[in-house]
Write a structure and sequence with these properties.
Chain lengths: ~450, ~190
């Protein structure tokens, strides 16, 4: 009986599941795409070089020069993804790779760099990567899935120590290392013994447990559940603020919605934001469940190039921007000067003392393509945000954005609910933001 | 927090996209109406300078107000056509009159553009721009495709590798629709 294995690439931002590996026609360059979308990650160029002869090892080992791989989360521009993808290719070649839709018998959590001669080279931030995967490990331990933590030989001691420090029941985990790819290939790469079928079911359940937990959490919050206690594994993890490490974290992508905690822990000051109904401007002092909630705080954080610098240069050199937070009136944001404007981050902050489900959509005349949207259960004092980022070399041109914000009542977290007229209880707030050129051109 | 609830446009189902698109179009229309009716404020007419800025600005489709202006002002339209022709270093003109149906290959002056469906993801297509005599120096940074009814889309080009740039797009995206339309013109600069 063939057993299927799922592969997670360890990153300092959390594990990224390899969802699909598909051969493309040879005239196509290999790409790594995000979650089945047409967004090719910047690391694709390096991946193509890793696949295609003469530089690549994948074609040499498995005979095909072009692949499309989908991953669940962004992976970095470093090289520590190489061993994980090579494991995925090996499993794919053996017919043992578990795609996103397959049930899996075992899991590989992998980090390591692979040289052209197939030596496996050490990587950094093992401890960070393990800590960021703690939630995944907890869930895998709970369903008793066999997990192999595969690291370069030179990282083995560090990996064992840092894994032990997590305090996870080690029964179904093994920390393994290789110094050369052949050690993986010759080892039979994992147990082929048949597993109990319920484990397959459990891995499927794991895949759906997070969305379910979000709904469960939402139900509890809306007072429909009998109590606030739920099984530990169904608790949605709270967002964790992680400072990206410069060596191993991809440059942040401007169009990706991100959940972030504000720098300050205090509840943001009330700023007279537009309210969703007449009672919304009442504040909750004690954090108890109540139907009257403080209004969501909407703001725009403008990031401008300092005098003498441009946005393009700014992004290359990493010089700090001049930031200012703008609050809207009920009519929207006042018209803003576009000169020196490198990006605008639109934020919605939850000012109450309890989590609230917030939906947000943004469309701008920059950032081609469709609107961005995000749905989150936002913890107290935390924000959810979307960014509009003009092209670094053409910043300063006029542009405009429309922002739609609403608190979502109980139900699924689909963004289309924001605009569904049959939805009861959703009152979207609409804000416009306009960045304009100076009245008179600087040059004639 | 669950990442699955973050939705990128390309990850949404068609019905969700249609809902969002309709909602935003309604909002944009309301917005335009609201602005134009504001006392003491009138919308500034689209000028040639705006069109120049669009060609030099970040990639994206031609804003609706610009399209409207091009439809209503033949002189502006002629200027825009000249602007595109002069700005572009490489051009693919409309396909021959005998061409019918949708195209998967466009031949320009010195380059070929091909559209190739992805085997890995249904509904996605690779756009391959290939320079036949080796990569030019400097390389083009953007592709603009303009068609009938003032539709114009501009996308950024990635770095060329071996004289080929590859972009992955949604099959039903505006840029793919325009590239397949034999009545459109393609400009690279």
């Amino acid at each position: 009986m063939v057993t299927l294995a799922r592969v997670f690439i360890a990153t300092t931002e959390g594990p990224s599941e390899v969802q699909h590996v598909v051969g493309e026609d040879p005239d196509i360059r290999s790409v790594i795409c995000l979650n089945g979308t047409s967004e090719a990650l910047p690391v694709s160029r390096d991946y193509d070089a890793f696949v295609r002869k003469p530089t690549g090892v994948v074609e040499r080992l498995f005979g095909h020069p072009s692949y499309r791989v989908d991953v669940s989360s962004r992976i970095s521009n470093g090289h520590s993804w190489q061993l994980g993808l090579l494991v995925a290719h090996a499993l794919h070649a053996e017919g043992r790779f578990a795609t996103k839709d397959d049930s899996a018998d075992e899991v590989y959590w992998v980090t390591g760099e692979v040289r052209h001669n197939l030596d496996v080279m050490p990587v950094g931030h093992i401890g960070d990567k393990l800590r960021q995967s703690e939630s995944l490990f907890d869930q895998l331990a709970h369903i008793q899935t066999e997990v192999t933590i595969l690291v370069p030989a030179a990282n083995l001691d560090e990996a064992k120590r840092d894994f032990d420090a997590l305090g996870i029941e080690p029964k179904h985990f093994r920390v393994r290392s290789i110094g050369h790819w052949e050690e993986f290939a010759l080892s039979g790469n994992g147990s082929k013994s048949a597993r109990r079928s319920w484990k397959k079911v459990a891995v499927i359940l794991l895949a759906v447990s997070v969305p379910l937990s979000a709904v469960a959490y939402l139900s509890i919050w809306h007072g429909d559940a009998p109590s606030r206690s739920v099984d530990a594994h169904l608790q949605p993890p709270l967002p964790v603020v992680q400072k990206p490490t410069p060596t191993d974290v991809e440059e942040s992508a401007p169009l990706v919605p991100e959940l972030r905690l504000p720098d300050h822990t205090a509840i943001p000051a009330a700023v007279e934001p537009p309210v969703t109904d007449a009672g919304d401007d009442l504040r909750v002092a004690d954090g108890s469940r109540t139907d009257i909630q403080p209004a969501l705080v909407v703001s725009a954080v403008e990031r401008r190039a300092p005098a003498g610098s441009g946005c393009g240069r700014l992004r290359l050199t990493g010089v700090a921007t001049d930031d200012s937070e703008i609050l809207p009136s009920p009519d929207g944001f006042e018209i803003r000067p576009s000169a020196g404007l490198c990006e605008v981050e639109f934020r919605v902050t939850n000012p109450s003392l309890t989590p609230r489900p917030i939906g947000m959509a943004l469309r701008s005349t920059i950032n081609g393509g469709g609107p961005q949207s995000v749905m989150e259960i936002v913890p107290p004092g935390a924000s959810v945000s979307l960014k509009a980022v003009p092209n670094a070399w053409a910043a300063g041109a006029a542009w405009k954005a429309t922002l739609v914000v609403a608190e979502m009542p109980e139900g699924n977290m689909s963004p289309e609910r924001l605009f569904d007229p049959s939805e009861k209880g959703i009152v979207p707030m609409v804000f416009t933001y306009t960045a304009e050129l100076p009245a008179e051109p600087r040059f004639r | 927090m669950n990442n699955n609830v973050n939705n990128k446009w390309s990850a949404l189902a068609e019905r969700q996209r249609q809902g969002l698109t309709a909602a935003f179009e309604a909002l944009a229309a309301l917005d335009a109406t609201f602005l134009s009716s504001r006392e003491g404020q009138r919308m500034r007419p689209v000028s040639f300078r705006d069109l120049v800025l669009w060609t030099k600005g970040p990639p994206g489709n031609l804003p609706a107000v610009y399209k409207m202006a091009l439809l209503n002002d033949q002189s502006l339209r002629r200027d825009f056509d000249r602007l595109l022709a002069r700005t572009a270093e490489w051009r693919c003109e409309r396909a021959a009159a005998a061409s019918s149906g949708l195209l998967d290959i466009r031949e320009g002056n010195g380059f070929r553009l091909r559209l190739k469906p992805s085997k890995g993801a249904e509904g996605q297509v690779y756009v391959l721009i290939e320079f036949l005599a080796g990569a030019p120096d400097p390389q083009p940074l953007s592709l603009t495709v303009c068609g009938p009814e003032e539709a114009c889309e501009r996308i950024a080009l990635p770095e060329f590798q071996d004289a080929v740039a590859q972009i992955l797009c949604e099959e039903d995206s505006e840029v793919v629709r325009l590239l397949r339309n034999p009545k459109t013109e393609i400009f690279l600069w």
